Amino acid sequence: MNNKIKVTIIGCGARGIEHAGAYASISDATIWALCDPNLERLKAFPGDIPTERRFADVASLLKNHVPELVHLITPPTVRLAVIKQMLEAGVKAFVIEKPFASSLAEARQIVALCQSHQARFVVNHQLPCMGTFRRSKRLLEDGVIGEIERVRISCNGSPAEQGTHMIDLAGVFLGGLRPQRLLGQIAGAKKLQAAHPSPEWMIGRILCEGGVPVDLVFGDIADPRVDPALFWVGCRLEIFGSKGMIDQSLARGYRIILHNGPMLVDTAYHWGTENDQAQRDFTREALDNFSGKHASLANSGEAALQPIAVLEGLMASAMNNTLENYPVEPIGDLAQSLKERLTK
Which pTM does this prediction carry? Predict the structure, then answer.
């Protein structure tokens, strides 16, 4: 036990439970402490963590224990403040739930703070670790659908809830997202005060180096058939190629439709099993990254800025009615700018 990495979970909701569950199959780390201001969630969190290691606030946690690794699953609006506290106390490693900040400006601050304290972090984009995406990516690399001509990403969650997930996923399938210009439109003010402050809907296009465009639709307009209570299964990736297309969603895995040939269906897909396995695999990769056993992950350090920068660039395009060049600069006061635009 003494040689195991001591992990703290901050944020004990459903996603916190999923993060913690990954450690059931990891032998060199263990959940050591929990932290959440919601006392009911804190008490109900599964596992044998004793009461004296369940804390209602970060200050109390740090008085008793400086974590070796923190999984941060709070609302994005408070993450910068929590990370500052943690870094000042000596924490050196973080797994941060996506999106890792509520704005590009805050994301840049987090990167700079971690660099100045010689701390590492990764953003928890676990979708590429799902078996279904790994299987379809291998088929894509084998040339089953030919040359990629266009990509479409969509999700039923708001842009802030799931948009960065889908931008990250597109980059994985394209071998790296190399945006040059961004065109977006946004609408809907009802989620500006949500846990993930955001427009309700976004449509847009990412024009990339090499000529492959990425079209996007975020929000419940993406697929009205999806049950709002299960919005996350609406995540969908469509890749159009010269020989056919990959059409993939969390609701059913992939199907590959060829111009000349049978449709290929992902008969191995099972949402619950693959989602759990993806979190385990991602967590293992993160631990290896922190220990130096694994090359830097695409969603660690400064590289982690790209999905949130693209998302904010699309918002800037919508608010300015312009085609935005990438890289983009942060919007001065993103929350206020969105309020002014969406509540007119």
Answer: 0.95
